[in-house]
Amino acid sequence: AQTVTQSQPEMSVQEAETVTLSCTYDTSESDYYLFWYKQPPSRQMILVIRQEAYKQQNATENRFSVNFQKAAKSFSLKISDSQLGDAAMYFCAPSAYGGATNKLIFGTGTLLAVQP
Amino acid sequence: DAMVIQNPRYQVTQFGKPVTLSCSQTLNHNVMYWYQQKSSQAPKLLFHYYDKDFNNEADTPDNFQSRRPNTSFCFLDIRSPGLGDTAMYLCATRGWGADTQYFGPGTRLTVL
User: Is the alpha carbon torsion for A3, B36, A49, B48 positive or negative?
Assistant: First the structure.
């Protein structure tokens, strides 16, 4: 079974600074996807960034980027130029590739506070 | 905009009184998921539909049922809610061949 560990229950960052959220996972799958979702206080889960495990190049979406280390099963999220709107709970979630389920296994989350 | 809609956003029910939560989507996705998220916890998958094929997670209580009358709609029925069923219920969809799930805003259920 897949397990996902987010070792930082809470993080804080100053506005305009950079913060990195860590995630490690365990999977027996050879092909899979990895996602970071954010959940603001409104509680809607929003996709931040996705990474295909077979791609070596790290994904980037504007101020968000990942450091994907497949051998180490590590998938950290870097937020540059942090903004107040980035304050949210962040979940790391791997998903098996293909098949009917593509079930997401969520980590326990990291609550990010952004200080003005 | 195409989206995933959940109704109601907030639901209060009494212990043992059946309740139905609704999810609809305009994305024409063939996979729909229901997750339960208790306070300060990660979402946990209850079940999903691949088209009309229903797939239950092994540890989903029998108290939870689901219906999908057509592509657009999916319902979560809780036959006899207990206090422990107080949670946020999230609906998500995914297109065939795609990898990303798109979530609705959730229904916050309180069982008194």
Answer: positive
Using alpha carbons, list the distances in angstroms from residue A64 to A17, A30, A50, A80, B100.
Answer: 13, 25, 10, 7, 17
Under 8 Å between Cβ of A17 and A82: yes
Using CA coordinates, name the residue in chain B closest to A90.
B42
Chain B residues inside the 8 Å CB shell of A42: 105
Q: What is the pLDDT of residue A29?
A: 77
More confident residue, B99 or B78: B78
One digit per residue, the tens of pLDDT, for chain A of length 116 reads: 578 999 999 999 999 999 999 999 988 777 788 999 999 987 789 999 999 888 889 999 999 999 999 999 999 999 999 999 999 999 999 987 655 567 888 999 999 999 99
Pairing of strands A46-52, A32-39: antiparallel
Please answer whether residues A58 and A65 qualify as being in contact, where contact means their C-beta atoms are separated by less than 8 angstroms: yes
DSSP-derived 3-state class of residue B31: strand
Count of beta carbons in the 10 Å neighbourhood of residue A103? 17
Question: Distance between CA B110 and CA B85 in Å, rounded?
Answer: 8
Q: Residue A103: closest CA among chain B residues belongs to which residue?
A: B45
Q: Is A107 on the interface with B (CB under 8 A)?
A: yes
Give the side-chain half-sphere CA count within 13 A for A6: 26
**Which of B107, B35, B27 has its CA nearest to residue B73?**
B27
Query: Looking up tokens 């209850």, which residue turns up?
Result: B46
